[in-house]
Task: structure prediction
Amino acid sequence: MMKKYEELMRLCIESASKYRFEAAPNPMVSAIIYDEREDKIISQGVHRKYGENHAERDAVEKAGDCDFSDKTIIVNLEPCAHQGKTPPCADLIVEKGFKKVVIGTYDPNPLVCGQGILKIKNAGIEVVTGVLEDECKELNKVFIKNVTKKMPYVLVKIATTLDSKIVTAGGESKWITGEASREYVQKLRSQHFAILSGSGTVLADNPALTCRIKGERTPDRVIIDRHGKISFDYQVFRDDGARVFLATNNLNRDFPKNVTPVEFANFRDLFSKLYNLGVYSILVETGKTILTAIIKQEMADELYKFVSPKIFGTGLDFIGNLGVYKINEAYKLKFCDMEKVDEDVLIKAKFLYED
Result:
């Protein structure tokens, strides 16, 4: 049955992933009620919006007048065991008398972790855990960071030459990578709550920092301008429905109604404040100075490096001095994936920080 459980779990992951922004700050969850004897899906539920039914309750309601005593419920995240905006899903599963529960991964929320599974097991219901666990964790990596650290998930994106340059000796930077890589970045933007950039990038390129994919949400924008160098005439400050946060320590100016100033001491302080403002994930698209500071302060979770098959020889490196003078002082990452994006290569890696 494990192959069948994996097949159904993939359906859960696919369905849940469609409600990334609506479900937040809750996790993305889908549940399938399955009849093992007849190899038949009875119903599928999903957590569509924060405050509305959780996936398990949605699936139960869609199943209607059903005998659950011989049914299996598959869910990508451990059913909750505490009262929040909605009643505990573990209680519902016990109440309906399911025969079996198949779970992708434990809920990292300290209010839940292991408690939902324990409650279900104590009711005599069979529990299978760890089905496609890595994929289920990857789906909710933002939620996991949010609930365990009270901080947004931070992905830094860079585009470099093969020799890791981002600007030529003559000062040119557009475009290092190909069109396919730039379209990939638009997809990344659509998946994050906010894009972060700095005053240097704004002054040099006047970027829009929007998502060009039709029908996709335009992310909020976070602009780092500690000393108030830039005027509000630049594209990033236009009022297009997205929230704009100006990270600055210069508050002695008039701010447009769509721009919220955020004072900050360092990036840990800034990201904590942004999290409390509902920014649950950030895509960093910035220059060398800010990128170096974010990594040096151990605020980045993941790195996407688009590498173009070009060599500049001289020019500007993508990263600055991290204070690493010995090999054992290096910042460590774990390679997660590598893929061809037309003529470019995308390297994906996650930062490994010591607790």
Notes: The longest strand covers residues 332-341. Residues 105 and 134 are 8 Å apart (CA to CA). Residues 2-16 form the longest helix (15 residues).
